[in-house]
Amino acid sequence: MEKYKNIGLKLTPQRLAVLQYLEGNKSHPSAEDIYRAVKRRFPTISIATIYNILESLKEKGLVQELNIDPYKKRFDPDTTSHHHLICTKCGRIVDIEMDFNPSLPENEGFRVERIHMEFYGVCKDCSSKGK
Length: 131
Hints:
The protein is α+β, with helices and mostly antiparallel strands. It is built from 4 helices and 5 strands; from the N terminus they run H-H-H-E-E-E-E-E-H.
């Protein structure tokens, strides 16, 4: 995990385990999903530790928190600008790359820092099950 040496955080074994789990992960896991995965290697780790690690990774810009699930926060290691497709049946979340740069009027000195769009529908797997 050489690439994480200069992130400005102490690289504890638990933090490295979370980073390894998230690396390349496209499932947009919840803290609970990450906890279950990391707990296999570190049986004494707590869910609070996972939340603390995720918060520190979020502050360093290494993960983004998604509020697209009404029941739990999800985390995305892809911090580039992208949008999401969300299946309303199974909850699957898929990344989509799409240029979207609306021309917004300046209003009250508000400066847009990022845009995130969510598209809700039924995924291919759920559609085929419903036939």
